[in-house]
Write a structure and sequence with these properties.
Radius of gyration: 30 Å
Shape: globular
Order of helices and strands: HEEHHEEHHEEEEHEHEHEE
CATH architecture of the largest domain: 3-Layer(aba) Sandwich
Number of helices: 8
Structural class: alpha/beta
CATH class of the largest domain: Alpha Beta
Helix content: 25-40%
CATH topology of the largest domain: Rossmann fold
């Protein structure tokens, strides 16, 4: 394109400065550059060859600005992935989220549905949890880990000892020997589970028993944890060497910030060793001091 035509087009762009969708148009960006070149051309030391280089640079800037504008438009027009919703029967009024099953599943009452989650396929098969879930009727069994992780999969450390445990967090092998090869399981957040339950359905109980990973479980729920009317979570004492040593304090801090308080019918003391449960009630329970599900 001749230089005279280029200057004419650029001047026209300067005379019609505009905004596109609330953002600066590429023509406006070029306009500012043209004004700069006008001042450069008025300088006697600028040679024609150097001026041509400046114009080439301006064209490159204009092309990049145009491409950026088009990419922004493309990103706006791309449809978002639909949110997954659990296929709950129409008669379901409330849901139980049962994380960390070991050998049993919390039994739902009439009008309830339990979403049972366990990371260990070995324990699911050993204790016939799939068959138990089917026998309950209002039950969905998911084989996955729940927690905070930067990858979609995590190693699950396992033991075949009687009373042995499974771990996806740190552990002391002198207290928790894991003699089996680790299993690879998917991991996702508790927020993903909660947000997949229709908003009109009450979450009566969220229970987590994951051998030291429980603080990470409730952290992964973020503000969605407030939908749980009752929360029961396992705490492992710091002397046992699994999970964060301050998990008791972190559990209280997280739950209090989201409107939970201790259920006065259950102990809430801190223990230095062993595992124990903490029981919380959310303010949305409207004076219901206790869930009808008694867990110890």
């Amino acid at each position: 394109m001749p230089l005279a035509n280029l200057v004419s087009i650029s001047y026209t762009a300067c005379d019609s400065e505009s905004l596109i969708h609330g953002r600066v148009a590429p023509s406006l960006l070029l306009c500012k550059c043209v004004r700069t070149v006008r001042s450069i051309r008025s300088m006697p030391v600028v040679r024609a060859g150097r001026l041509r280089s400046v114009w080439a640079l301006l064209f490159a800037i204009f092309a990049l600005a145009t491409l950026a504008s088009q990419r922004s438009s493309w990103s706006v027009e791309m449809p978002t992935a639909p949110r997954y919703v659990f296929p709950l029967p129409p008669e379901v009024r409330s849901v139980i989220i049962d994380i960390g099953l070991y050998d049993s599943i919390v039994q739902p009452t009439e009008g309830e549905f339990v979403i049972a989650i366990d990371a260990s396929l070995r324990e699911i098969e050993r204790f016939k949890l799939s068959t138990r879930c089917q026998g309950l009727g209002s039950c969905l069994l998911i084989n996955a880990a729940i927690g905070k992780d930067r990858t979609p999969f995590v190693n699950l450390q396992q033991s075949q000892r009687e009373g042995g445990s499974s771990h996806i967090t740190n552990y002391d092998p002198t207290v928790w020997p894991m003699e089996l090869p680790p299993a690879v399981v998917p991991v996702f957040s508790l927020q993903t589970v909660i947000d997949s339950i229709p908003p009109a359905v009450t979450i009566e109980l969220c229970k987590t028993d994951t051998n030291g990973n429980d603080v990470y479980v409730i952290e992964s729920a973020r503000a969605s944890l407030k939908r749980c009317r009752h929360l029961v979570m396992e705490i492992v004492g710091p002397r046992d060497g699994t999970g964060p040593p301050d998990q008791y304090e972190r559990a209280i801090r997280i739950t209090q910030s989201l409107g939970f308080h201790f259920d006065p019918k259950y102990p809430s003391d801190r223990h230095d060793s062993g595992s124990y449960n903490l029981f919380f009630i959310h303010a949305s329970a409207h004076g219901r001091s206790e869930s009808h599900h008694i867990l110890t």
